[in-house]
Design brief:
Helix content is 34%, strand content 21%. By secondary structure, it is an alpha/beta fold.
């Protein structure tokens, strides 16, 4: 049925969705294929196949997607991690020093900092997103991968939560205290702060060795023309980069240097046709060693820039 509708991965999709609906592993599905399913199971399979035929991706239906060898839970506010973004993780692992401090802007599922930290046991990270629901998924994913104590999650726009809430960390609802791996132990969001609340590690020590981002980079007009699987199911906040798709890069190029340690790097994922424009933004902002990296398909995918 899926195949006739033009789904190129119809057999695999059907197998994954059937296994999910019947709560069977791939192996169980293969070894028990001649057993009859009960009517509730058949109804669940039919329901999931119907959702797939309406254009929803298998990962979104199942609620999880693999990235850099790890599973990430999704919700309606998160983009599905894409294989192209693994290049950003490869480059981040090369750029982050031992015990390095990473900032991820627009973290979504948290896939980038979690994948980096999984491969750099001494590193710590701050992850920012404008969507509280996306941060819920990111926190769950960090906990599932044993990294809750190594990543501070902050809600807000790009660098703004670092400025207005420079303390980061999780608020303990009973004590109102915040505990974060990077920023010490200070008063939490909504709690009156005074200079006495400042931990010894103030803003001066909040510099990052590496800032990464896979921001929304599709121009507003083009978002409307995307395949239904993306346009109708991925959150617009994760896609829409403003009238020319470059709005987040302008902010990142302008402000990242305030938050970078000397010689620190910025790595941003880009659309295949944005290499020249994004490089120009970083060059104009005074960065050094501005480089475009291509993905496995030979397409421009990441711009790297060094803060001097
Ligand atoms: C393209 S998605 C990337 C998600 C994830 N980093 C990944 O690579 O799969 C962009 C993310 O940026 C977030 N975002 C959009 N506008 C933002 C803003 N002004 N400040 C912070 N995050 C923002 C979205 O909610 C979304 O999670």
């Amino acid at each position: 049925m899926l195949g006739r509708l033009g789904f190129s991965s119809a057999a695999l999709d059907a197998k994954l969705l059937t296994g999910h609906a019947l709560r069977l592993s791939t192996l169980e599905l293969a070894t028990r294929e001649n057993e009859p399913a009960d009517s509730a199971g058949v109804a669940r399979v039919a329901d999931l196949l119907q959702r797939r035929m309406s254009g929803e991706s298998v990962a979104r239906i199942i609620g999880a997607r693999a990235f850099y060898g790890l599973d990430f839970l999704l919700n309606e506010a998160t983009l599905e991690p894409r294989p192209e973004t693994e290049l950003l993780v490869d480059l981040a692992l090369g750029a982050l020093p031992a015990a390095g401090r990473l900032l991820d802007l627009g973290t979504g599922t948290g896939c980038i900092p979690i994948a980096v930290l999984a491969n750099q046991p001494d590193a710590v990270a701050v992850a920012v997103d404008l969507s509280g629901r996306a941060l819920e998924a990111a926190r769950d994913n960090a906990a599932r991968h044993g990294m809750a104590g190594r990543i501070d999650f902050l809600k807000g726009s790009w660098f703004e939560p670092l400025t207005t809430s420079p303390f980061g960390g999780e608020v303990d609802p009973t004590s109102g205290r915040v505990r974060g791996p990077l920023l010490g132990d200070v008063r939490g969001e909504g709690i009156t702060r005074s200079s006495a609340d400042l931990s010894p590690r103030g803003r001066g020590e909040q510099k990052f060795d590496l800032i990464v981002s896979n921001p929304p980079y599709i121009s507003s007009a083009v978002v409307e023309t995307l395949a239904p699987e993306v346009k109708d199911f991925d959150p617009r906040l994760a896609l829409d980069g403003g009238p020319d798709g470059l709005a987040p890069y302008r902010i990142i190029a302008k402000e990242a240097s305030d938050w970078l340690a000397p010689e620190g790097w910025v790595l941003v994922e880009i659309g295949f046709d944005q290499g020249a424009a994004v490089s120009a933004l970083f060059l104009e902002a005074g960065y050094d060693d501005v480089t475009i990296h291509t993905d496995l398909n030979g397409l421009d995918r990441v711009v790297a820039a060094r803060h001097i």
